[in-house]
Amino acid sequence: MSRKMRMTQVDAIQDISPHMRRITLGGSDLNDFPIEQESAHVKAIFPQSKQGLPKLGLYLGAKKWMRSYTVRAFDQHTKKLTIDFAVNDHHGLATHWASDAQVGDYLGISGPGPTKHTNLNAPWHLMAADITGLPALAAILEKLPKKAQGYAFIQIPHKADMQTIKSPKGIKIQWLINSDIHKNRLLEALSNISWQDGSPAIFIATQSAHMKTLKAYVKKQPNYQKAYTYASGYWKA
């Protein structure tokens, strides 16, 4: 992951669903931000007080003020970086900042790291995410070739959290409405699909315990390849 740290400011805020707030960042430090990094992560660096600036740099205790977030979009012409924050269902440093954010507020950015999907041209794709992994999954769907085939399962707290996502016609998107964070409806959904020929590119981004269960399940399926799999616990219940 690139360790370059940049100072940004909130340029726009949009509540795109009850549990998702889109924050667009700007600033001259983004002039050299790399393109085509959608679905990659950055380390968001938060201020230590509401009125303060984020403290950039590697110092003792720095990680306390950092959290990983997805590059949802970057406009190379306007140099604006978009990050979607899951809010109103999770609590912590990042969600509190995002919930209270105002235009002009400062946010540090470190990165980006590598993009997440292992093979955009795989024979087929299998993706599973809860609302915290939705920004990365959505970014991946938008990057897939038109001929892509497969499944995308997205668990969200409320029907109103459904989003319109541009994706290939061959990807079957299924929204799973589930407000119980302890219930793994994603596993139920994966258990009911027909496993296709060829090795799928697999993307899993969800609550840590659910991720481990999902990963254990897909490892037992035909043509599974570890090299084609990205599985990460985005949060802990």
Distance between the termini: 27 Å
Major beta sheet summary: 7 strands, antiparallel
- What is the H/E order? EEEEEEHEEHEEHEHE
List how many beta strands DSSP finds.
Answer: 12
- The geometry reads as globular
Q: What gyration radius follows from the Cα positions, in whole Å?
A: 18 Å
Q: Would you identify the CATH architecture of the largest domain?
A: 3-Layer(aba) Sandwich
Uncertain residue segments: none
CATH superfamily of the largest domain, by name, is: Nucleotide-binding domain of ferredoxin-NADP reductase (FNR) module
Q: Say what oligomer this is.
A: single chain
Instruction: List the domain count as a whole number.
Output: 2
Helix content: 10-25%
Structural class: alpha/beta
CATH topology of the largest domain: Rossmann fold
Please characterize this protein's 3D structure.
The protein has 237 residues and is α/β, with parallel strands linked by helices. It folds into two domains: 5-110, Translation factors (Elongation Factor Tu (Ef-tu), domain 3, Beta Barrel), CATH 2.40.30.10; 125-235, 3-Layer(aba) Sandwich (Rossmann fold). Helices cover 15% and strands 33% of the residues. It has four helices and twelve strands; from the N terminus they run ββββββαββαββαβαβ. It has a seven-stranded antiparallel β-sheet. A five-stranded parallel β-sheet has the order 10-9-8-11-12, with helices on both faces. Strand 11, helix 4 and strand 12 (229-235) form a beta-alpha-beta unit. The longest helix has 12 residues, at 208-219. It is globular and about 55 Å long. The two termini are 27 Å apart. The model has no long low-confidence stretch (mean pLDDT 94).
